[in-house]
Amino acid sequence: MIDDHDNAPPLAEPQTYVSRLLLTDFRNYRSLALDFRPGAVVLTGENGAGKTNLLEAVSFLTPGRGLRRASHEDVARAGATNGFAIHARVEGPFGEVEIGTGTAGDGETSGRKVRINGAPARSADEMLEWLRVIWLVPSMDALFTGAASDRRRFIDRLVLAIDPAHGRRALDYEKAMRGRNKLLTENARDDVWFEAIERQMAETGTAIAAARVEMVRLLSGMIEHLPADGPFPKADIALAGTLEEALAYQPAVDVEEAFHRSLAENRYRDRAAGRTLEGPHRSDLLVRHRPKDMPAELCSTGEQKALLTGLVLSHARLVAELSRSAPILLLDEIAAHLDAGRRAALFQILEELNCQAFMSGTDAALFSALEGRAQFLTVSGGTITSR
């Protein structure tokens, strides 16, 4: 058990939680209505019963494509002809809100719509005004050994949880870069078009890099609150990337101008490659296991899981401190990958966070320490029953 959290920031703010969830034609659920209590929610059942589908539905209460990054066609229930719909009642320190999202009645599946208290939202980013959702799922177990793109996506989701404008910056950068890449592959020579696109890439790209740098700074400070000999080891984190590294010793305005010049000067090189070879889309997140002074990718599977869990929990503390309410956590198959000591430590930390945490697993016995302290639900073939 962890008994050394005296240095952690106080987390006594009222809890933000999903109190009711309604699903229509979502994954294996034709129609489902569930009421939740604050605190831990434990979902148990056999593999394929629909546990992760429920967590995925909650993950759609934040911008993006959810914890599986699935297409809307895949999310809609097989055989459904009218898309999918998710409706949630969320309660917390900022009041009660009704959030609806999905493609039902849209006539298309290219994008999902969001409604806040019945009114169309300008964008999905408006959901971040009411709740933040963070997840840890088995597909992330290869984060440290997989592609750099996965780690970029990971750090950008961490940024988005405290900086709602980050998602729009990333979309604007990607759109501008696609435009530049198209000009490169078409062997276009229109300097005016290149100049306009590269100026936008320099502005948004530097802002993206600066937000990542700030996240690493804040998260590194929060990691220090973990006990030195705790079950989730401290991690040293850094960013590898031209812009991120330059921001360590140059003002952002100078980094932006240098990136703009670099894009213009390297059109010939990028034209030969058929794509833009420099920018925040090439950066990487570097993680080291501090107690062992070892790169995370060289650690054992268990050590990597403990490192990643510690990072996610430290980020949840950071979000709680900055937004005055802890995020909702989605922890898929979390208990199966932790020994008894780390499970007990995790449950204690979740209580300290004062957060709603959805946890799933096939073996209810792994959550026995939460009896009387959590809401237990059994998932079987698209039906949910309380224990």
Question: What characteristics describe this protein?
Answer:
387 residues, alpha/beta, Rossmann fold, Glutathione S-transferase Yfyf (Class Pi), Chain A, domain 2, 10 helices, 15 strands
CATH class group of the largest domain: Alpha Beta
Measured by DSSP, the beta-strand proportion falls in 15-25%
Q: Structural class, please?
A: alpha/beta
CATH topology of the largest domain: Rossmann fold
Distance between the termini: 27 Å
User: What's the CATH superfamily of the largest domain, by name?
Assistant: P-loop containing nucleotide triphosphate hydrolases
CATH architecture group name of the largest domain: 3-Layer(aba) Sandwich
Overall pLDDT: 92
Which sequence of SSEs, written as H and E, runs from N to C?
EEEHHEEEEEHHHEHHHEEHEHEEE
Count of discrete alpha- or pi-helical segments spanning 4 or more residues? 10
Strand neighbour order, sheet with most strands: 2-1-4-5-6-7
Q: Outline the biggest β-sheet.
A: 6 strands, antiparallel
Q: What's the overall geometry? A: globular
Fraction of residues in H or I helices: 25-40%
Q: Please tally the β strands and state the result.
A: 15
Radius of gyration: 22 Å
Structurally, the number of domains stands at 2
Please mark out the parts with pLDDT under 50 across 5 or more consecutive residues, or reply none: 1-11
Gist?
Helix content is 37%, strand content 21%. By secondary structure, the chain is an alpha/beta fold. The model is unreliable at 1-11 (pLDDT under 50).
Explain how this protein is built:
The protein has 387 residues and is of the alpha/beta class. The chain has two domains: 1-144 and 326-387, P-loop containing nucleotide triphosphate hydrolases (Rossmann fold, 3-Layer(aba) Sandwich), CATH 3.40.50.300; 146-298, RecF/RecN/SMC, N-terminal domain (Glutathione S-transferase Yfyf (Class Pi), Chain A, domain 2). 37% of the residues lie in helices and 21% in strands. It contains ten helices and 15 strands. It has helices at 51-59, 72-75, 148-160, 165-185, 191-223, 242-246, 252-265, 267-273, 301-323, 340-353; strands at residues 17-26, 29-35, 40-44, 85-92, 95-102, 113-116, 119-120, 133-136, 235-240, 284-289, 294-295, 328-331, 357-361, 374-380, 383-386. Strands 2-1-4-5-6-7 form a six-stranded antiparallel β-sheet. It has a six-stranded mixed β-sheet with strand order 8-12-13-3-14-15, with helices on both faces. A three-stranded antiparallel β-sheet has the order 9-10-11. The protein is globular and about 65 Å long. 43% of the residues are buried.
